[in-house]
Amino acid sequence: MTSEQEPIVTRRTDRASEPGLDLMDALHDLRGPIAGDVPLAQTLNPLVREGQLYEKLPDDAVHCFACAHDCKIKPGGRGICQVRYNLDGKLYVPWGYVAALQCDPTEKKPFNHIYPGSDTLTFGMLGCDLHCPYCQNWDISQAMRDANAGRPPALVTPKQLVELAGRNGARCVASSYNEPLITSEWATAVFKEAKAAGFACMYISNGNATRRVLEYIRPFTDGYKIDLKAMNAQNYQKLGGVLEHILEGVRLVHELGFWLEIVTLIVPGFNDSDAELREAAQFIKSVSPDIPWHVTAFHKDYKMQDPDNTGAQTLIRAAEIGYDEGLHFVYAGNLPGEVGPYENTYCPNCHATLIERFGYVVLDYHLTAEGACPKCRIRIPGLWPPSKDEVRLGSKADLFVRVPRPVC
Questions:
Q1: CA dihedral 178, 125, 401, 333 (to 10 degrees)
Q2: How many CA atoms lie within 13 A of 151 on its CB side?
Q3: Which of 35, 36, 231, 345 could make an SS bond with 355 (beta carbons 3.0 to 4.6 A apart)?
Q4: Half-sphere exposure (CA, 13 Å, Cβ side) for 168?
């Protein structure tokens, strides 16, 4: 890092200047978002450039394959996500801004098998291809869909984001908070810079992916976290998704060689039955028993205010089901100190404790430089540091210090 940092500025960046198209004039032909005539739309609509994840159709329609909705969009129309749109037969996609930006513990993503104890510079844009009623990031994910949602975007370049990652001591860079698939052109531009600078790059996603978008991001993306929200097709429809599309997304991410971890937010009365949790664990095992499964606690948020918050015993029950079904790594998350042994990583062969955790704090780390169990020498799958010296260790007293922090 140099002593002189390029400042984040609020200016028009190099978007949409194709010959014959004045973007600002052409936007008059763009259909309004589901949220209606909200001021944010006027700010956000020009923050685009022509996308790459689409193909042209007759009559100036386009087919977007950034997510598994596979939207066919007529001129002046928007995709389901509301932020990818067709003008004059070209697909325009979000570019050059962030709506959320902070440095998170990598375990918060959650990734327990990527550089434990590290920090991840995490950025998000606006919009989502689903509409989950319990989304904790609804103020950015449901922008352009809900008139009460939305944050003002801050203009930034990929180079500036990578400089911020280095300045703030991050080991990784991630696209999160809203759905990264629908902003994959921007994420890939950031990740190209980040990979060149030595950072690991990750997606925190709902998994509603296509093979083509995954192949597009794969050269620059190391880790991929998928929210497996339910194993009930009707419940997925309530969220705006198709269960089989998500299951296929899991299969594809694993097949293409991303490091994959899966999260299921346990919502009382929605997906917490033994049968459904067992079905989720069985499915994950059918792809690979080495995929870590995180079961995490729901809390009341956004439009879902009726169910009780998830208790520790429910997470323990889910974790026990995961191990009973043959998964090698199961974690009960976001209730630190309340879930017994289910915050730690254990060797699936000799059951030695390999990584001890308390919330986002790594208490101890025992893997070898090769990422193996020190007792039986079996290789533990994941992305590990070459030395224990690179792992930030702490104590239980660090629980309220090891938290997300603003960038500086």
A1: 10
A2: 19
A3: 345
A4: 25
Q: Is 309 helix (H, G, I), strand (E, B) or coil?
A: coil
Contact 371, 390 (CB under 8 A): no
Cα distances from 20 to residues 17, 91, 92, in angstroms, run 9, 15, 15
Placement of tokens 């998994």 in the chain? 207
Burial class (CB in 10 A: 0-12, 13-18, 19+), 181: buried
Q: Is the Cβ–Cβ distance between 307 and 269 less than 8 Å?
A: yes
The structure tokens 């938290």 sit at: 403
Using alpha carbons, list the distances in angstroms from residue 19 to 28, 57, 224. 18, 21, 38
**Whether 131 contacts 144, CB under 8 Å:** no
Burial call 61-78: b when 16+ CB within 10 Å, e when fewer: ebebbbbbbebebebbbb
**Phi/psi at 318 (nearest 5 deg)?**
-65, -40
Please tell me whether the peptide bond between 110 and the residue prior to it is cis, using omega within 30 degrees of 0.
Answer: yes
Q: What is the helix (H) or strand (E) element at residue 124, kind and residue range?
A: strand 119-124
Q: How far apart are the first and last CA of the chain?
A: 14
* Tokens encoding 202: 């990750």
Q: Where are the domains of the chain?
A: 23-93, 97-398
Q: What does the pLDDT read at residue 112? A: 98
Residue-wise pLDDT tens digits, 13-52:
333 334 445 677 778 789 999 999 888 999 999 999 999 9
CATH superfamily of 97-398: Aldolase class I (3.20.20.70)
